[in-house]
Amino acid sequence: MSAGTPIERSWPAPASGPLTDPQLTALYGRAPQPHLRVNFVASADGAVTLDDYSAGLSGEPDKRVFGLLRMLCDGLLVAAGTLRHEGYRAVRLSADRRAWRREHGLAEFPTLVVVSGSLDLDPTQACFADAPVRPLVLTRSDAEPPAGLTEVADLIRCGADHVDLPAGLAELRRRGLGQVLCEGGPHLFGALTAADLVDELCLTVAPLLAGGGPGRITAGAGSAARHLTLRHVLAAADGVLMLRYTRDAADPPPAGATPAT
Description:
By secondary structure, the chain is an alpha/beta fold. It has a domain at 54-176 and 201-208: Dihydrofolate Reductase, subunit A. It has helices spanning 21-28, 60-72, 80-85, 95-103, 126-129, 149-152, 165-174, 186-194, and strands spanning 7-11, 35-43, 75-79, 111-115, 136-139, 154-157, 179-182, 200-206, 228-236, 241-247.
C-alpha cells in the first residue's frame, strides 16, 4: 500500500493514482542478467550533499524507493568513506520486504559489500557488528586488516596497488550476488563508470538549490561518456523527481556479465 507522500508515474504514461509498493517494485524490478545499479540523490543544481550529508537531500519518497531498491538487490555496494561518514548501520529490511525476498527465492537480507583499499574500517561499527549477513570487503592484496575485522567480515583481495573493481564484481557474481546496488560515494561511482561497469543509474532530484560548495554525485579521473536511456520518471507531490536510466539495449554487456540461468 502507498503511504506518506504520493508517488505518481509521470512518464512514459501517467498513473491512475498514487503508486503502490508492488507497482514500484515492478517498475524497478530485477534484471534477467547480472546487473549493477547505482542509486544517488542530488539537488536540482547538482549537489550531492546538503550540510555535508546526503540525508539532507532525501525525503520520504526517495527513502521509500531507497528501501525497495535494497529489497531487490543481492549485494549492497558502498565505499568505505561513505560507510564511515554516513554512519551506516546494519542492512536490515522490514518483515514484508523480507517475506517478498523469500517468496522470490532470495536470501532474507542482501549482503553488504564494502570497497576499501586501506581497510581503514571499524569492526565495531553497527554495519559489521550487527549485520544479519556477514559483510564482504573488497580490498588490495597487501592491505592489513585492523584487529577484529576478519571476525565480522570476509575479505576479497582483488588488485595489487588498488582495488580491481571488475575482478571484485566478477567474484561477487561467482558468489551468487548478481544484482548489485551501489550507494556511493562519488569516487566509487566515478571508478565504476571509468571501468564501464554501470548498467543503471537511479537518480532522485530534490527540489532545492544547494548553492556552491558540495561536489557532484561522481568524482575522480575523467572517462568516456556513455549514453543512457531514460526508462521512467516518477513525480512526488512534494516536487521530488525520481529518474531511472539504463544502458542502451544495443550496448554489449560489461565484462564478466553473463545471462542469468
